[in-house]
Amino acid sequence: MSSSSKSFAAEDWEALRRLRAAFLDGTAGDHDYWRTERDLERYDATFGQRIRWKWDYVLRELKQRGWSPPAGNVLDWGCGSGVAGEAFGATHVWDRSRLAMDFASRKLGAKIGIPDEIGTLLVSHVLTESSEALAVAGRATAVIWVEPGTYNASRKLIALRERLREQFHVVAPCTHQAACGMLTAENDRHWCHHFAPSPPEVFRDGDWARFAKLAGIDLRSLPVSYLVLDKRPVALSGVQEIGRARVYKAHALVLSCDASGVRERRVTKRDEPEEFRRLKKAGK
Question: What pLDDT score was predicted for residue 152?
Fold first, then answer.
């Protein structure tokens, strides 16, 4: 937990409960839930850090795929406390909340406002509150969109992918440009999500334990859904694993996606021992 949390008083924890309630009951999008700059500091040290770990995971995945961002302005849209902009390096920030924009601008040394030309658009955890970022997306060369790894958030991201894939090349998590295989009737119960790792030190931190209890979260589980798009040509290939494999005594079932669709693949301990061990270790 960031150093600013070490001075948390009773009113700070109560404010975090208020913020959590707004996120959970769906009222976060009805009004500006930042009351003071201290709210942003509290959020940045707790909820914001968990979002930062998701961004770190997505950016590592992009690096492994050899993707590089285009030149130009980087806009953190719906910036909140500036978590996405800090992870990627934003030059501009925008939020419906003036308080949030001022906070993120100072934190990142970024300009306030939406630039005329956008190289990379960063969007983070806004689908449950607003879909207005879609209008800005068309003005960017590349879009990195990160959301919670829930069924509803994933399905909304899939809908955005289908709307934008004629205008953009899909970079990740997909390995193909075809229609999303999740949209078939037999895959209606599935959703596209992955798991970002939490830093090891959080499991030895009493403040994080208290926060986990307050927020009702498992520190070991950090599900994330994301979508990366680019107007520049992109080479795609291979198979993408989704979620976590279901591991049994002698076999594992892993949901996989490629251009031919989404299907469950069976990996046996006898025939593919190394792959089985990898899936077993990843599921712990």
Answer: 93
